[in-house]
């Protein structure tokens, strides 16, 4: 049993992605079993420099399609800067508008003092703490072959001026058919923090490509009203061939 975030979630090196990678997703929404294309999301990896530290700069953007804005308008932008050497976040910016709920958050992480600085003050954080976006790229570098189904891989996340002790529950491997095609995939459930769209708990399921890239292929989750499926529809500049693709749709 893996008990502390320090055991598993520290010291991971990036072996799965490169600067220039772009992943694009369609968001499908269902109330009564019928899925409609309700929005889109994209994740772009670049390079930057903070305090003489080389870092990855990832921008994640999500938006509802304008025809669905009247139901639940989403205009989200997340940015993370994390150290290329140890994958630890240096800076996190969140600017969200979700159904009228608006929030701007700006966090600076200090690895030397294990603190996170926000407009609300200075907060003690554990070693290897992640932010919402950096945790996705960190999780892509987990070696799932060292785990058995139902194993929990713990990590800590800083969000809204609080530290959350979370985990990923590994569920094994399976072949999945998405809107893009048929893939060999690694399946897991992240423990979520309750937010404006998603409930807390283990309700979200994620499938990532069972190849050296570990790109998220599908995310499925109940939301406040209904269910969403998020499928990868386009990719650019992957580090390795997408060898998990069995066939196109």
Automatic annotation (TrEMBL):
Domain of life: Bacteria
UniProt cross-references to Pfam families, sorted A to Z: DUF3108
UniProt protein name: DUF3108 domain-containing protein
Lineage of producing organism: Bacteria, Pseudomonadati, Bacteroidota, Chitinophagia, Chitinophagales
């Amino acid at each position: 049993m893996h008990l502390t975030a320090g055991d598993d979630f520290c010291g991971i090196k990036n072996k799965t992605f490169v600067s220039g990678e772009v992943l694009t997703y369609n968001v499908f929404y269902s109330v009564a079993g019928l899925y409609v294309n309700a929005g889109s999301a994209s994740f772009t990896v670049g390079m930057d420099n903070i305090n003489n530290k080389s870092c990855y700069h990832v921008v994640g953007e999500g938006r509802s399609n304008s025809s669905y804005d009247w139901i639940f308008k989403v205009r989200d932008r997340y940015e993370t800067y994390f150290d290329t050497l140890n994958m630890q976040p240096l800076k996190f910016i969140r600017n969200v508008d979700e159904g009228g709920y608006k929030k701007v958050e700006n966090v600076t992480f200090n690895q030397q003092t294990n603190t996170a600085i926000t407009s609300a003050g200075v907060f003690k954080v554990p070693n290897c703490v992640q932010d919402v976006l950096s945790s996705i790229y960190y999780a892509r570098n987990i070696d799932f072959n060292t785990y058995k189904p139902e194993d929990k891989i713990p990590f800590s996340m800083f969000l809204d001026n609080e530290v959350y002790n979370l985990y990923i529950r590994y569920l094994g491997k399976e072949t999945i058919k998405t809107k893009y095609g048929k893939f060999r995939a690694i399946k897991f459930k992240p423990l979520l923090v309750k937010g404006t769209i998603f409930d807390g708990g283990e309700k979200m399921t994620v499938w990532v490509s069972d190849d050296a890239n570990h790109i998220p292929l599908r995310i499925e989750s109940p939301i406040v009203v209904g269910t969403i499926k998020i499928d990868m529809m386009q990719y650019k500049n992957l580090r390795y061939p997408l060898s998990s693709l069995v066939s196109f749709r």
